[in-house]
């Protein structure tokens, strides 16, 4: 349902955002402004709509972010508190940053000096062009533009020796180490059928097809993910082997192999895309483990891809997974692991660097008992 907010022109206009943040209470239009003025408006729940030069707006946005970084509190020594404080600070800063907005004209146009053409990037996100103007946070627009470029370029997946193309709103497999674990793991004997639970971009289903599994069902409930997976599977030439199904977790049938890469951290997501990262109370993880046995063929295997970052952040007990396996009547066949190679693992400025530097990613191969 569209959200409309009042402006100082005594009119209302639609406000769009991809997060669960509350919309501003009102919006003011300004041709020029500075970080201090925008922050003052933001703390008063007022959005500043930029009407001047686009490049100047980007500079002011950078200044706003710099001010917010300066105001950050000192690190907290308690590990779990550090994580929750970091998440709260992220959410608060995101809300403030998103109070600098631009007005998107009809047909996804942006009528500002030196503004880029944004129609393709917004079509990637929203589909049908708008016939009424709306307000969009500038930071989010820049994210859309960057995501569109990545969508066109693709993310190279060494295990596939090709690119996966991912639009905004779908989790991108930038962390390739877990895909290498899947590529290297031996399939169950005579593996004819497989499920990829929560397929996202379709990359795991594509890997299973490349490994020679002839019949694969990939499931998801995110419409953007389903469209993305279908496009990737078709482009890679695996359409005969892979079927995409709009289903929460498991299809009705059974399979020789069931693979799941659930969100790794038990915390509340603040946007749809964060649902690929955060799993409140480990709900998806537990639902997968507790339901997988009834969907496995005899001698079948369940593969769980999981990081131990939550353990290092004290969000899960070290024996949590072992207890989940036992509760679900699953036993461990084998476990392989690797260390992260992504940029954040080496970013000393990251407030969670102490945990990321210890992180290990695992592939658990399980069977029913």
TrEMBL record:
<dbReference type="InterPro" id="IPR002052">
    <property type="entry name" value="DNA_methylase_N6_adenine_CS"/>
</dbReference>
<keyword id="KW-0949">S-adenosyl-L-methionine</keyword>
<keyword id="KW-0808">Transferase</keyword>
<protein>
    <submittedName>
        <fullName>Class I SAM-dependent methyltransferase</fullName>
    </submittedName>
</protein>
<dbReference type="GO" id="GO:0036009">
    <property type="term" value="F:protein-glutamine N-methyltransferase activity"/>
</dbReference>
<dbReference type="InterPro" id="IPR050320">
    <property type="entry name" value="N5-glutamine_MTase"/>
</dbReference>
<keyword id="KW-0489">Methyltransferase</keyword>
<dbReference type="InterPro" id="IPR029063">
    <property type="entry name" value="SAM-dependent_MTases_sf"/>
</dbReference>
<feature type="domain" description="Methyltransferase small">
    <location>
        <begin position="191"/>
        <end position="327"/>
    </location>
</feature>
<dbReference type="Pfam" id="PF05175">
    <property type="entry name" value="MTS"/>
</dbReference>
<dbReference type="GO" id="GO:0032259">
    <property type="term" value="P:methylation"/>
</dbReference>
<dbReference type="InterPro" id="IPR007848">
    <property type="entry name" value="Small_mtfrase_dom"/>
</dbReference>
<dbReference type="GO" id="GO:0003676">
    <property type="term" value="F:nucleic acid binding"/>
</dbReference>
